[in-house]
Design brief:
about 325 residues, alpha+beta, Endonuclease, Chain A, Arc Repressor Mutant, subunit A, 3 domains, eight-stranded mixed beta sheet, two-stranded antiparallel sheet, about 50% helix, about 15% strand
Length: about 325
């Protein structure tokens, strides 16, 4: 048994000795939280390896889940650092010059001078969007006049959106009211708001646009036929006009409504609670005196309702939404 250790085994994941001692103490005794500095408690809550219980106490994640969460957090930090270094060094521009000098010359003229560039083709537009968001430093403003996001588009957008939020870029998104009637879209919007995004719903028609850092804007050539392509501009006067339009639409929109608590059976509530406490389905089924196959069917349905990829994610999303 290794209780009482003082070695900083988690140091390589960004955890200090005091923070690790606090986590180890909680694993031994959940009442140990009162013996540690509030800053340590706050830090471990931010890292997600310790969570608040409904009663207001503290519960440590299992060691396996805690290490997985710390690795995910550390990888995110490394990715952000590498991306920032790449932006400052101009690596993309340098490599692009090797691949297509003519295109790079056009890009330089477009981005470094107050000009407008017409972008044709869906792939080219997606490339422009990726580039804009990659280089965004302070703010990302977008609208979605359709209001409904497919599962495929969400999977494409999620790493980009989370990367933006992780870097501390302010994200404001306007959605058409159709989002309120689509469960998949609403689940993703709530996922983003939990990470710090600001999202509003407009009862009025929206103009399609993407604006980064109030310095570059992308709008469709033909709002009625977005397949025609887009216009990208860094011309200050035009960008300012597009920003003003966004702000007017934002002011006329409504906050994303609070999520209504779902109707859960007593069995579903008990199963959700076990997802916080056990690592294996066999253990959860045994604790609830339930057949393993039945337990797994319930878990699968709950994961689908929560749009979760695994049990750990389902447990976190259930807690974030106040289901348990």
């Amino acid at each position: 048994m290794t209780t009482g250790r003082t070695a900083n085994d988690l140091g390589f994941l960004g955890v200090s000795p005091d923070e690790e001692r606090f986590y180890r103490a909680l694993l031994r005794d959940r009442e140990a939280a009162g013996d540690h500095e509030p800053v340590v408690v706050t830090r471990m809550l931010e890292l997600g390896v310790v969570v608040r219980t409904p009663a207001g106490g503290l519960r440590p994640l299992s060691p396996k889940r805690a290490v997985e969460r710390l690795i995910e957090h550390r990888l995110g930090q490394v990715q952000d650092d590498l991306e920032e270094t790449g932006r400052r060094a101009g690596v993309v521009d340098s490599l692009s010059a090797e691949a297509d000098p003519a295109r790079t010359a056009t890009r330089t003229a477009t981005y470094d001078n107050p000009a407008i560039r017409q972008i044709e083709g869906l792939e080219a537009v997606r490339g422009a969007i990726d580039e804009m968001t990659f280089f965004a430093h302070t703010e990302n403003l977008t609208t979605n006049p359709v209001g409904v996001l497919s599962t495929e588009s969400i999977e494409v957008s999620r790493p980009i959106d989370l990367r933006i939020l992780r870097r501390g870029v302010r994200m404001r998104t306007l959605m058409a009211s159709a989002c309120l009637r689509d469960g998949t879209t609403m689940a993703y919007l709530r996922e983003l708001t939990a990470q710090g995004a600001e999202i509003r719903v407009s009862p009025h028609p929206l103009e399609r646009m993407i604006i980064c850092d109030r310095a570059v804007a992308l709008t469709p050539i033909d709002p009625e036929n977005t397949a025609r392509g887009a216009l990208l501009t860094r011309e200050p006067g035009l960008v300012s006009t597009v920003v003003s339009l966004f702000e007017r639409m934002w002011a006329a929109s409504q906050e994303l409504p609070e999520e209504a608590l779902p109707t859960l059976t007593e069995t579903e509530q008990r199963i959700l609670r076990t997802l916080y406490l056990v690592d294996k389905d066999e253990t959860g089924a045994r604790q609830l005196n339930m057949a393993l196959r039945t337990y797994r069917k319930h878990v699968a349905r709950l994961m689908a309702r929560l749009d979760a990829d695994n049990r750990f994610q389902a447990a976190l999303r259930a807690r974030e939404r106040g289901w348990v």
